[in-house]
Amino acid sequence: MNIFSKLAISAGMSLLLAAGVAQAQGKTFNVWWYELPDTPQAVAWTKALGAFKAKHPDVTVNFEQKTFDQLQKAGSLILNSDQAPDVLEYNKGNATAGLVASQGLLTPLDDEFKKRGWDKVLNETNTQLSKYDQNGVYGSGPIIGIPALGEFVSVFYNIDMFQANGIKVPTTLAEFEATLDTFKKKGITPLAYGTVDSNAQHLLYTLALTQADDTWVKNYQGLKAPLDTKPFLFAAQKIADWVGKGYISKDSTGLKGTDAANVFSSGKAPMFVSGTWNNGNFANTIKTFKWSQFIFPTTKYTVGSTGSMFMVPKSAKNKDLAYDFIDLVLSKGNQNEQANLGGVAIDADPAAITDEVGKRNVELFHQISSKGGLGFYPDWPVPGYYELLIQATTGLVNGSTSPDQLAARLKKAYDDVQAAQ
What we know:
There is one protein chain. With 421 residues, the chain is α/β, with parallel strands linked by helices. It contains 17 helices and twelve strands. It has helices spanning 3-25, 40-55, 68-79, 94-102, 110-115, 159-164, 173-185, 199-209, 214-222, 230-244, 257-265, 279-285, 319-330, 332-340, 356-369, 385-398, 403-419, and strands at residues 28-33, 60-65, 87-90, 131-132, 138-143, 146-147, 150-158, 191-192, 271-275, 291-294, 304-306, 309-311. The longest helix is centred in the first third of the chain and has 23 residues, at 3-25.
């Protein structure tokens, strides 16, 4: 080989190396989420982005703050365009994640799930809402999303009021009702409740889940059989009974969930059945008494689910970078960060959590998910069920709807959709 040939090869290699460097430096990693900036998860994810930048100094990171409504309304259009990001937060469920999955707009993550060890972080319970079949129905099919947080409904309780009345945290439904009765005999309405919005269904479904087994939950959430109304009938009868005994105020029909939360946080009611989304508000506003949470005593299931998920669009230009970011979000350090900010982390180490709210969230979520006890939400299976549940429960509390009528209304709406599957 003469010197000219050597020079040509050397020059060619230099050009290739220069092109490679330029290509790496030219990469832009696009990431979207809709969590508000001051939420525990958004703060933790922002720190994950900082770690990502340190790991990839030659990559330009472009973060865009979106809104839930933006992606809810235009998700399919965005993901089916060249404007899709490399990774984005997206809502779980058949009507959202399932829809875009059925349209082939998301990248299957099964290979990365095992290769990157995400299967060591997320158990089978925590990935039920990550899988969707060709019809967009959750529970089977490829993994198309990775959850990084959880949420659940619990009983918020006023520790000071419990101690002052010699009451221990109930561990059975009978003990819970005895607690209600003890407070009522002291002249205290024990349950803060609101039927104007989603708070209506949380108590109803919580009580229904005391009567539910695996088959019932899977059939109900998966539209696999006509509705067996026995759990809902039991729940409706309990609520009607509790209203009659004064455990729940009839004024609840005029309250939203936030109003009922204010009744609890002001110290007027010792208990409030609602979700972990109240934690931040309670941590900031309750200054006059001690409070905590306990899981409503059911056989297995609790109202709740994994939270929104990170998904990689089919058209993403930098999928490996997207996987690296998800790695960081699922890391023990970032999960601990989220929990220490009061969030519901999926895989935080309880021993590393100093924030009392975050520590309790981690303990309870692990308690629920480790037994496969996420019961999801009652309005998920049927379009329009959210409004129907609110109307029916409001009627139950104000006396215009009987438990039998509530069960019949739920069955008709459910069976009509189930029969059309």
